[in-house]
Amino acid sequence: MKNQVLQKFAELYGGEGDIRTYFAPGRVNLIGEHTDYNGGHVFPCALTMGTYGAARKREDRTLRFYSMNFERAGVITTSLDDLVYREDAGWTNYPKGVFWAFGEKGNPVPSGMDVVIYGDIPAGSGLSSSASLEVLMGVMLRDMFGFEVSQVEIALIGQFSENNFNGMNCGIMDQFASAMGKKDHAIFLNTADLSYEYASVKLDHARIVIANSNVKHSLVGSEYNVRRRQCESALKQLQAVTDIQALGELDIPGFEEHKDAISDPVERNRAKHAVYENQRTLKAVQALKDNDIAAFGKLMNESHVSLRDDYEVSCQEMDILAEEAWKLPGVLGSRMTGGGFGGCTVSIVENDSVDAFIEKVGAAYEKRTGIKADFYVVDIGQGAGVL
Ligand code: GLA
Is the CB of 277 under 6 A from ligand 1? Predict the structure, then answer.
């Protein structure tokens, strides 16, 4: 990949001078979904799939971007003096947002750049191709201009740009996983204070298998922001009866005691998911530490049911992928992963059942939906950096 990007760079912009290369991974979340903007815990890991980039400084203030994933868009030219969101700027709104966010955070980028990027995360799969692009730009700008920002700050800048430049009110999980990933480990992150620890996910007898539904419903952005508002409203009502700053501070008895303060049943269900999912995540990480993968898998299944019924961010296609997985021997757990409304499921499958899993879930999914799913047996990779 690195060589392909460098070759394209030379072809488009010339191969001379100080051309540097970078990589930032996508992520898969094992458990802890829609908890990251509720002060709860998440448990994602970085993938070995991600976004590669090559860049060279320019003397002027021009920015040239080219994506090998959107070749038809060609080289998109803009300037450091035009860092505003534009519909017709397409994918370049993500890198532009990061340039803008660096400036907002006190690190204005002093000169233009030529950039080529290439990602191997399937588009629209919910495996955080956009967060990986943001984090890629963050490590690129830090390295090229010597900004003093940490990996965590790069994640926060990426989130800030996505929230305030691209209008998607995401939490910190995706950018954090891309920036802070560690090979063969998942990140147990408390989004209330960004404290984290790495947990080894060296599964001897099982693999992580991602199933891509290959659907992405248009609800994804708008409904995400609706969920956030519903959680905020539920929190406000709970705050009238109990002293909390975030839904993640409640345990299950605490929620059950106070839940009637939330008048709207839909909002009550949203809050229920946020609280229960956070508690499930705590239990799941403990189960993993105890090497009880069966318990971990069961919690994954419960997570899916809660996302489907209480949080209502699943969709028929992902429900089918999960249901078909649950039927099979050798499947320890399976759930939708990411924001929802399409994208992928993540499953833990025993080594000798992986082939059957792909064949059977794939066939049943195609039969029931008419759509072909894709499967990736993944490894957990390292966070973003210079190549
Ligand atoms: C998207 C967001 C994350 C997180 C997940 C749901 O991936 O970008 O911040 O909220 O959805 O867990």
Answer: no
Cβ-based neighbours of 191, under 8 Å, separated by 6 or more: 35, 36, 37, 38, 39, 40, 41, 42, 171, 172, 173, 248
Task: Please give the structure tokens belonging to residue 174.
Answer: 């995706």
Distance from the alpha carbon of residue 34 to the mean position of ligand 1, in angstroms: 6
CA distance 249 to 40: 7
Strand pairing class (20-29; 385-386): antiparallel
How many C-beta atoms lie closer than 10 Å to residue 348's C-beta?
24
**Partner residues linked to 359 by β-bridges:** none
Nearest ligand 1 atom to the CA of 36 is 10
Supply the DSSP symbol for 313.
-
Please tell me if the CB atom of residue 339 comes closer than 6 angstroms to any atom of ligand 1: yes
Shortest-distance Cα residue to atom 1 of ligand 1: 339
Cα separations (Å) of 73 from 65, 91, 119, 274, 304?
10, 9, 15, 40, 37
User: Looking at the annotation, which residues are catalytic?
Assistant: 174
Let me know: does 48 contact 147? Beta carbons within 8 Å. Answer: no
Give the DSSP letter string of 52-89.
Answer: EEEEEE-SSSEEEEEETTSGGG--EEEETT-----GGG
User: Region 244-258: what's the mean pLDDT?
Assistant: 98
pLDDT in tens, 97-140: 999 999 999 999 999 999 999 999 998 899 999 999 999 999 99
CA of 57 relative to ligand 1 center, distance in Å:
33
